[in-house]
């Protein structure tokens, strides 16, 4: 009997404990990966005029309803497109006597709600904000209930349309975030706002809903694993009081930063007559954010530089309906790029995105919507309250933004401070306001110069506007180094994270294509499905908090590397450093690891990294250093050449052969045969006209053609040097000052050497071109930097090694989304094997810093023609200088010095300083 009584008491206590917690009963799914079908009727556009089913949450365009609109579309605020939703559910009789709230996390745009035929409250206007209705007295307990929601895609409030729908992004309709019932005790804690400072001071403001009885509030702080931190603390409330403040000072805490995202949880208990009535648990972090005017942003007393990106809530198949898995994916990708910040553009995100920023560590700028227009004051006041009520406790949120690019309602600025217990600073994106100059897309010379001469904290909330493959990584190093060293610079945010390519269910039988609205949505560092583009890796290297300086590996190398710790809170010795030596043999890569001592460098300190190299390190070709952070995330892998191209060429090129080189001449050609190779070279200008071997022709012709230099090779002669045949032009200072020499070896290898003077002091493109039919090239395998292509102002992010990729015709940001792109410039060539339709050939060089170029991508452009890079003539090129690339808002030369042309001086002085380029060809087809 005693055991039965004890079991009854334990079960009762467990049930009581469960009843004390807030219960959340979902009526929809929890995200785009977990939906619930509701009845649906669309009033206009696709599949309109009939009742059917739709998954919730979702945007109805992506489910085949209504009309697709980009924000600039002329009808984006004129339509009468509505979605009528119905959903039936049961309300258990046990809920009677409790408080029941109906919560919508987000619906686009005006939402009118009825329950059992009765209005739940005023129509909610505004898309991205959680709103709730008290439906306690509207429910049928113990039986069925009918929920009806009418969602208007376009708001009846003109200011909402100005703020949300006339923007540079896709415009959707529908219930796109979860809907649920919140079941609370009749006496309950209604809201909690926390301010937990780095000095251990914990303050919480609680809003209560009680019947006026005397009430006690008790709180206990825990680690996330459940260990108690400090002792409980309480507050007593008199009858009728509905607000209470609790404070506590704690010691020896782990602080929250983007590098150390240490979180705690606090449990609040509402007690009446000593019994718990309601228990609420909140996660938070101890940290202090301070803005010091004419100085910078300080977190926990440390001045920080923000390495950030703008992020839209977007997925190609579901629009703005996302999931926690997508939030985890996005934050991990940002952290993988060594970012420490993200801006919510241009509206508040899903709650789970902020949860992930809290747990993985990103500073967040949370934004009240407004693109070039803003909410009116009554509407903005309500939505601002919903924003801060929803997001106030996230330690990741360090600043608020009141609208974007003119979409600022100045009357709301003081309300942020009034609503926010933490009194976080408010900025206006694109304005010099509140001590912050956040101007967008300033040219490097004007922007950096102006910022250096100003007095506000410099924080461009958008800079380097990506478009296709431009911007982002291109120009970033110039901007970042200026930002890093300028005391008033607080960093900045790139535009933007992911290409907004939406699946068009109204085209191709609902299967697409992906539509970026031409160049408007192709702004991402990653693709629509988070495919990594080339700038991803450039950003990763440039923003690495461990900065590896340039280091040439010579015979006197002692294993030390100069480095700088650009962390804000982390000692370099908390990272892991590993090394590997690589030797490239004819058949495979041979590697040998070595240890690297982690240096004791405090944040912002410079010092040396010491590699414990084996005695035979000079026998290897490349050296790699990999750094991983304290959370086991790779910061970057740096590569350093030990063997330069002139050494590697001796291993690759075979000049000796058993046979002889034979030459016959016609009126116009030198016809050369050696070891099964047949060459035809023009006697007039030395151009390669034809190549063949036992397998047939190799269609590499019409080269070398010099780019941005005079093609004045003349007066060719031929001679022998031992068994080698040499065909060369004659130098003439006035008419034939550029020279070409061919050397054909008995082995079948062919050497080409050009000496040339660029046409001017300043040039972009120097090198030689050849013709090759694009359809004949199937793949390439090369030794050099890879695997992504480069631009003059985006050289970082690659790694030296052996790479391969099959032919593709990808235009960055457009289908097909195959990365890395095949076409373009590739850096630091040693050799390349061209898979040419069954008859491959190899090109190698003894020169350092040679680029090889594969064809010309089919470039699209923008209305200002800022983006367009320059390509040489011909199809395949071997270059010693290449073009930079612009962004959507800036030409290449305005993104910084790396975007400028190359300078070539002194070519008229004696001795003449010509550029030299030497290539070796293996046409054997092996």
TrEMBL record:
One of its GO terms (molecular function) is beta-galactosidase activity. InterPro entries: B-gal_small/dom_5, Bact_Beta-galactosidase, Beta-gal/glucu_dom_sf, Gal_mutarotase_sf_dom, Galactose-bd-like_sf, GH, GH-type_carb-bd, Glyco_hydro_2. Residues 188-287 form the Glycoside hydrolase family 2 immunoglobulin-like beta-sandwich domain. Its cofactor is Ca(2+). Keywords: Calcium, Glycosidase, Hydrolase, Signal. GO terms for cellular component: beta-galactosidase complex. Its EC number is 3.2.1.23. Residues 720-838 form the Beta galactosidase small chain/ domain. Residues 1-19 form the signal peptide. Residues 53-183 form the Glycosyl hydrolases family 2 sugar binding domain. Residues 289-546 form the Glycoside hydrolase family 2 catalytic domain. One of its GO terms (biological process) is lactose catabolic process. It catalyses: Hydrolysis of terminal non-reducing beta-D-galactose residues in beta-D-galactosides. Monomer. Belongs to the glycosyl hydrolase 2 family. This is beta-galactosidase. It comes from Spirosoma validum.
């Amino acid at each position: 009997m005693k055991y039965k009584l004890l079991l009854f008491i334990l079960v009762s206590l467990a049930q009581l404990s469960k009843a004390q917690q807030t219960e959340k009963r979902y009526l929809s799914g929890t995200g785009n990966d977990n939906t619930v079908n509701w009845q649906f009727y669309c009033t206009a556009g696709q599949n309109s005029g009939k009742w059917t089913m739709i998954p919730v949450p979702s945007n109805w365009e992506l489910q085949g309803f209504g009309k697709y609109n980009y924000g600039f579309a002329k009808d984006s605020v004129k339509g009468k497109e509505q979605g009528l939703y119905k959903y039936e559910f049961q309300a258990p009789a046990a809920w009677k006597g409790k408080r029941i709230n109906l919560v919508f996390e987000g619906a686009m745009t005006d939402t009118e709600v009825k329950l059992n035929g009765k209005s739940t409250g005023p129509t909610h206007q505004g898309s991205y904000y959680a709103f709730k209705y008290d439906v306690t007295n509207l429910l049928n307990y113990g039986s069925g209930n009918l929920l009806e929601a009418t969602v208007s895609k376009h708001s009846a409030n003109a200011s909402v349309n100005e703020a949300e729908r006339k923007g540079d992004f896709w415009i959707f309709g529908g219930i796109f975030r979860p809907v649920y019932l919140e079941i609370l005790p009749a006496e309950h804690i209604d809201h909690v706002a926390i301010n937990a400072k780095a000095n251990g001071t914990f303050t919480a403001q609680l809003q209560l809903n009680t019947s006026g009885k005397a009430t006690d509030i008790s709180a206990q702080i825990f680690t996330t694993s459940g260990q108690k931190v400090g002792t409980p603390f309480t507050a007593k409330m008199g009858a009728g009081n509905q607000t209470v403040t609790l404070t506590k000072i704690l010691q020896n805490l782990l602080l929250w930063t983007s590098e150390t995202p240490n979180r705690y949880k606090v449990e609040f208990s509402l007690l009446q007559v000593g019994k718990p009535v309601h228990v609420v648990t909140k996660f938070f972090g101890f940290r202090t954010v301070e803005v010091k005017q004419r100085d910078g942003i300080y977190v926990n007393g440390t001045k920080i530089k923000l390495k950030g990106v703008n992020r839209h809530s977007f997925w190609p198949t579901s629009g703005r309906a996302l999931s926690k898995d997508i939030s985890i994916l996005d934050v991990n990708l940002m952290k993988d790029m060594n970012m420490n910040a993200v801006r919510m553009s241009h509206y508040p995100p899903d709650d789970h995105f902020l949860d992930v920023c809290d747990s993985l560590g990103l500073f967040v700028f949370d934004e009240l919507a407004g693109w070039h227009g803003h909410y009116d004051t009554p509407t903005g006041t309500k939505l601002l309250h919903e924003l801060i009520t929803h997001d106030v406790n996230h330690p990741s949120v360090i600043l608020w933004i009141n609208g974007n690019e003119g979409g600022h309602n100045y009357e709301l600025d003081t309300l942020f401070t009034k609503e926010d217990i933490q009194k976080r600073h408010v900025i206006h994106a694109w304005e010099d306001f509140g001590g912050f100059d956040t101007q967008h897309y300033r040219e490097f010379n004007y922007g950096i110069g102006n910022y250096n001469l100003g007095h506000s904290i410099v924080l461009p909330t958008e800079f380097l506007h990506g478009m296709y493959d431009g911007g982002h990584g291109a120009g970033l190093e110039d901007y970042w180094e200026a930002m890093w060293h300028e005391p008033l610079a607080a960093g900045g945010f790139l535009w933007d994270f992911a290409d907004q390519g939406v699946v068009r269910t109204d085209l191709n039988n609902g299967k697409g294509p992906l539509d970026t609205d031409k160049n408007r949505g192709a702004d991402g560092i990653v693709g629509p499905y988070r495919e990594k583009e080339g700038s991803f890796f450039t950003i990763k290297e440039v923003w690495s908090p461990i900065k590896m300086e340039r280091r040439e590996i010579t015979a006197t190398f002692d294993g030390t590397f100069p480095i700088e710790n650009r962390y804000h809170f982390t000692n370099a010795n908390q990272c892991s450093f590993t090394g590997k030596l690589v030797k490239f043999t004819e058949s495979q890569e041979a590697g040998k690891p070595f240890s690297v001592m982690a240096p004791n460098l405090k944040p912002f300190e410079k010092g040396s990294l010491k590699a414990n190299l084996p005695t035979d390190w000079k026998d290897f070709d490349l050296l790699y250093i990999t750094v991983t952070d304290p959370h086991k995330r790779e910061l970057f892998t740096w590569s350093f050449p030990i063997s330069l191209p002139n050494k590697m060429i001796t291993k690759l090129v075979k000049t000796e052969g058993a046979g002889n080189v034979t030459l016959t001449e016609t009126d116009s050609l030198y016809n050369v045969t050696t070891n099964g190779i047949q060459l035809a070279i023009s006697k007039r200008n030395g151009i390669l006209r034809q190549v063949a071997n036992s397998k047939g022709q190799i269609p590499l012709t019409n080269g070398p053609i010099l780019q941005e230099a005079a093609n004045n090779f003349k007066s060719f002669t031929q001679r022998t040097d031992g068994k080698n045949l040499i065909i060369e032009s004659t130098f003439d200072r006035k008419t034939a000052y550029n020279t070409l020499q061919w050397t054909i070896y008995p082995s079948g290898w062919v050497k080409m050497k050009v000496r040339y003077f660029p046409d001017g002091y300043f040039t972009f493109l120097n090198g030689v071109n050849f013709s090759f039919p694009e359809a004949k090239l199937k793949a390439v395998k090369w030794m050099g930097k890879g695997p992504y292509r480069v631009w003059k102002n985006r050289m970082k992010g690659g790694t030296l090694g052996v790479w391969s990729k099959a032919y593709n015709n990808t235009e960055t940001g457009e289908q097909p989304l195959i990365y890395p792109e095949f076409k373009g410039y590739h850096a630091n060539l040693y050799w390349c094997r061209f898979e040419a339709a069954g008859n491959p050939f190899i090109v190698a060089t003894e020169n350092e810093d040679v680029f090889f170029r594969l064809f010309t991508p089919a470039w699209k452009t923008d209305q200002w023609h800022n983006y367009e890079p320059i390509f040489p003539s011909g199809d395949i090129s071997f270059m010693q200088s290449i073009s930079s690339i612009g962004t959507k808002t800036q030409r290449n030369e305005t993104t910084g010095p790396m975007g400028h042309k190359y300078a070539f001086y002194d070519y008229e002085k004696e001795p003449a300083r010509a550029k030299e380029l030497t290539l070796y060809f293996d046409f054997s087809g092996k």
